[in-house]
């Protein structure tokens, strides 16, 4: 069995809407152990939708069941053509379902509105298709087997509606028909402070494994290794993945920081809680980004005291006790100022640790001596130890990327120090 995802909507092609439905369904198919090799986005055009259907059927082995998952094109407007096009392609008429009209009318009445005539279109489904009910919205989908070894599901484009229809109807249907007996289990290991290519070289032999498989990914400075295996139960999957996971962690060493839903901020938080320690931050070029990352974690008030956004030099001197002479002679973007910022915020907030960030985020403001992407991170401890770290994130024009890398790297600096103590 294999599946293809077909997302219908010209707005997707134009980039007006992020196609989160494909990502959701891809992950769900993996969890069911259903092979998934292709995704297609097609506009609201009957001819092109038919071409997509034809291509999917032609490339599917004739001795395997093909599942086509459609999202979008189920609304009441003239450009919503998914069901109509499917009926035309397979040569069957559309049939009206009075129970759908009644359901839509009831939902409108509950909202104090009257169903418009155009909504009757949503009750017209290909003859022979079963209704895939939509509890939350007005656009029902279908479950249809128009020919042997072919199952078609249609869902509305609204993610919340599609998710519920998938969980409550589509998944039980597939499982009742013998699919999903072996599930693909995955674990995502996360790393910071090492390039994807460097990590891939270190773990190269493990990338050749057949079961479990190991695959590298990289995004915004973070490197990930996904371990995946197909197994009949979580226990079996854990037995297969655990030795590989331990070997990867051993090879990566301190560059490994967490797995799955863990973030640098959440990992730092756990370390601080375990030690009964607290943190304050002083930010310049990141403008509060580091504090935002920390407070995204539920329960962060247990260790995060607060921060100072010292964008102007006057704020650095007034609130963080940074030397005005050092600001004049060495500049705000310097190791000395980073150290004083960290020391100052730790002292004023009476925390165990103080972190500071100062740098040139660009795209303007750089010089030969201090180019765009130059960032200093300061780290102060209540023992009196103060350190600074220099990073060069490159002369990119992406200001947001430099700010993101700066905040994450600051968290990683603290993580490494916490593991040393």
UniProtKB/TrEMBL annotation:
Lineage top rank: taxon: Bacteria
CDD domains with a match to the protein in the record: cinA
Record Pfam families: CinA, CinA_KH, MoCF_biosynth
InterPro entries, sorted: CinA (IPR050101), CinA-like_C (IPR036653), CinA_C (IPR008136), CinA_KH (IPR041424), Competence-induced_CinA (IPR008135), MoaB/Mog-like_dom_sf (IPR036425), MoaB/Mog_dom (IPR001453)
Residue stretches making up the MoaB/Mog domain: 4-177
Similarity comment: family membership: Belongs to the CinA family.
Protein name per UniProt: CinA-like protein
Native source organism of the sequence: Aliterella atlantica CENA595
Phylogenetic placement of the source organism: Bacteria, Bacillati, Cyanobacteriota, Cyanophyceae, Chroococcidiopsidales
